[in-house]
Amino acid sequence: MSLEDLSISVTFLMDRYYGGDWPPSPGRLYQAMVAGVMTCGNSEHAARVEPALRWLENQNPPVIRACPAAEQTTYRIAVPNNDSDVVARDWAAGRSGDPAALRTMKQVAPRELNREGPHVEYRWRVHAAEAEEMLPSLRTAAHCLHTLGWGVDIAFAEVRGGVEGDLYEPALFGDFQEVPMNGTLDDLQSTYKRFAARASGKGVDTHTRPSMFRKQAYRRADQIYRPAVSFMLTQPNSDRTKAVPWEHCMKVAAWLRSAAAKRLHNEYDPAFIESYIQGHTAKDRQDHRLSYVPLPTLFGEHGDGQIRRALIIEPGGAPGEVVRMLRLKLTGATVTDKNNDDVCSLAPPPADDWVMKRYLSPAGSPLWRTVTPVVLHGHNTARRGEISLAKTERLLLRAFEMTGYSEETIESFAFQAGPWWPGTKHASAMLVPEHLDGYPRIHVQVRFKRPMRGPMIAGIGRHYGIGLFAESRE
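-> structure tokens emitted (474 positions)
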């Protein structure tokens, strides 16, 4: 049976999007189409459209093509938190109740869509004969869509392609999106019934959210995705935060490397532990290993450059199996040093940890600056001992190429010995392993031609967390 592409494209009428992550997930599109058919006087189409929606939920996840979406200023608003029944019970009991006090602060993070629509396209690879049969009903369902995202994200959809922009493809590892699955339509219909009957004499049933969606990883085609697991450092067997001086990155990296090897020794064979986990590899295999990356604190109340967090990162393109195992094995573990003394415990960071977000930058940033200096793989001085700008740039281009960033992606470099960030120190103050001590260390600013995501590390000290970048929002 021959295959063909089936595309549904969406245009946002206000050229803005408030619904959260960009692009909107295939699951969110599916919900919006179902809601469009069931509301605004469109329910007369429901019976005719339902077979096509059931067919669509059983297709493989689509590829997504979306135009760039620039993040705008984030702000917060107060919204009702839908528990006025609490006030009603107070009033019924003769107690005072203030409905104005029942407010929840909601963060609003709009994105500007800087081109004419359509803005996003979802493209499925389907059997041609089946698609031809379902096409009229899918076209009706698409035309019924009225919003996608929040209620203010007014949009319309069409069964057509042609969107120019970034390509997001299903992958083994990446940013997880919800996609419809067998049973999603039934779950949405059941959810609506619970919502319609949520208020009763016993109170309000808040369990009115759909749950039948599958998590699918997506990757933007031109981005480097490095599977990573993040931890907070705490005092041994305690929930009090542990802080390590900025210059002791390699010490923290050694703690993590030793802990990872110990916890995984029963999961993988010794050769794999020796090479991939501990990094004892041949020179031509240096990228086929984990990187242990301490994260200095740069922002907020404790923006003093001390290390309170850490990442363990797999190489770009890895499926992420090892870091998933490390999340299970190391969360809550107590870490020891080379003398077998307890030095810290590892805890999961808060989901909204904004320090971590500056290192990971899921949305991407064009401008990145080193928090710990890049260790160059060669000498950057001219014959008279002066720094050569040309040599330094060539070495930096090579350092980024070794990490996966081609010269074509980079717009410019700036470098200096002094730090870019408050709380960090001169490049020479960073302690490095003995075999790297003779190589130059510099702080670097890199500007890419388009936003890049993190984590970003470069240079021959990257597996020790030396050469770590944070996104700059200037």
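The mean pLDDT is 89.
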